[in-house]
Design brief:
By secondary structure, this protein is mostly helical. It has a single domain, classed as MetI-like fold (Orthogonal Bundle). It is built from 13 helices and no strands. Helix 5 runs antiparallel to helix 6, helix 8 crosses helix 10 and helix 11 runs parallel beside helix 12. The radius of gyration is 23 Å and the shape is globular. It starts with a helix and ends in a 6-residue tail after the last helix. InterPro entries: BP-dependent_transpt_permease, MetI-like, MetI-like_sf, OppC_N. This is ABC transporter permease. It is a multi-pass membrane protein. It comes from Marinobacterium aestuarii.
Length: 306
C-alpha cells in the first residue's frame, strides 16, 4: 500500500470527517500550526533580533503599538523599557515555550509509559511501589512539585551554569510532575492486554517478558497516550509560564512567554500595558487552541461516542 493510498484512506475515515465537521477544532488546529511555524521560523520572520545588544537603542524604549499616538512603524506592537521590539520578543519567547512544552511532554510520556508497562505487566511489589509513588505525587499541586524539583536542581548546580541549565531543569520539573497520568492509563490498559491470548502465546513460546512488553503490549496501549500528550501540552506550556513568571524558570537572556509576562508586569501600572498584554494574549490563545484540539481528539477516539 502506497502513501497515497494511506492518505486517501485517512481522508475517508471517520476521524477526518469528525475533524472537518468541527469548525472550532479546525480553527484551533490552524492557530496551533501557525504558532508553531512562527516559532520555528522566528529568526527569519521576526522584524528585529531582540537579543542583539548592538541593534538596541534606548531612544526607542517604551514606544506604544504602531496604531497609537507616538507609535513607530518599525515596531508593530511597540517596544519595552530597553527598546526591544515586543513582536520579535514574543516570537522568540514562543519558541522557548514550545520547546519546553514539547520536551516536557515527551520526557513525561517516556517515563510514564515505561513505568506503566512495568507496573501493569509485572504486578506485585513493583506495581504497588510505582502506584504509591504516583499517589504521593498526585497528593501535591503540580506547581508546588515543579517548584520543589526546580529548587533542588538549581541548588546543586554551579552559579555559572545555572542559566544555561534552566531549560533542562524546567523540562525535568514538568516531566516529573506529569508522568503519573501516562503511567496510570498505560497500567490499566496493560493489565487488560496481558491476559489476552496473544500475550499468553508469546509467553508459551519463551519470549522474554521485556520483549513481550515492547513488541506486543506497547503498540496496543498507546492509543490513549496520544490524547493525554495533546492535552498535557497546554498544561506543560502553562506550567513553564507560571514558573518563569515566579522567577524560577527561563532567565531574561532566553525569555519564554512567561518571562516576558513577568518582565512586562513590572511596568504595567506605569502605563506600558502592551509589554505584558500581548505576550499574555499569545499564551492564552496557544493554550486554548491546544486544549481544544486535545478535547476533540479525546472525543473522536472514544468508541463510546461514535
Amino acid at each position: 500500500m502506497t502513501m497515497r493510498d494511506d492518505w486517501h484512506r485517512f481522508l475517508d475515515s471517520d476521524l477526518f470527517y469528525s475533524f472537518k465537521g468541527s469548525r472550532i477544532t479546525v480553527i484551533a488546529t490552524l492557530v496551533t500550526v501557525v504558532m508553531i511555524l512562527a516559532a520555528l521560523f522566528a529568526p527569519w520572520i521576526a522584524p528585529h533580533n531582540p537579543f542583539d545588544v548592538a541593534t538596541l537603542d534606548l531612544m526607542d524604549s517604551e514606544l506604544p503599538p504602531m496604531w497609537l499616538e507616538g507609535g513607530d512603524a518599525r515596531f508593530l506592537l511597540g517596544t519595552d523599557s530597553q527598546g526591544r521590539d515586543v513582536l520579535s520578543s514574543m516570537l522568540y519567547g514562543l519558541r522557548v515555550s514550545l520547546v519546553v512544552g514539547f520536551a516536557g511532554v515527551f520526557v513525561a510520556m517516556i517515563i510514564g509509559v515505561s513505568l506503566g508497562l512495568l507496573s501493569g505487566f509485572l504486578g506485585g511489589v513493583v506495581d504497588a511501589f510505582i502506584m504509591r509513588v504516583a499517589d504521593m505525587i498526585l497528593s501535591f499541586p503540580a506547581i508546588l512539585v515543579a517548584l520543589l524539583i526546580n529548587g533542588i536542581a538549581l541548588s546543586f548546580l554551579p552559579q555559572e551554569v545555572m542559566h544555561e541549565s534552566a531549560l533542562y531543569v524546567l523540562v525535568l520539573a514538568i516531566a516529573l510532575t506529569s508522568w503519573v497520568q501516562y503511567a496510570r492509563t498505560v497500567r490499566g490498559s496493560t493489565m487488560v492486554e496481558k491476559s489476552k491470548e496473544y500475550v499468553q502465546a508469546a509467553k508459551v513460546i519463551g519470549l522474554h517478558p521485556l520483549l513481550i512488553m515492547i513488541r506486543h503490549v506497547l503498540p496496543n496501549v498507546l492509543g490513549p497516550v496520544l490524547v493525554i500528550a495533546t492535552i498535557n501540552l497546554g498544561l506543560a506550556i502553562l506550567t513553564e509560564a507560571m514558573l518563569s513568571f515566579l522567577g524560577v524558570g527561563m532567565p531574561p537572556t532566553e525569555p519564554s512567554l512567561g518571562t516576558l509576562i513577568r518582565i512586562g508586569n513590572e511596568f504595567l501600572f506605569s502605563g506600558i500595558w502592551w509589554v505584558v498584554i500581548f505576550p499574555s494574549l499569545t499564551l492564552a490563545l496557544l493554550v486554548l487552541a491546544v486544549n481544544l484540539l486535545g478535547d476533540w481528539l479525546r472525543d473522536a477516539l472514544n468508541p463510546k461516542l461514535r
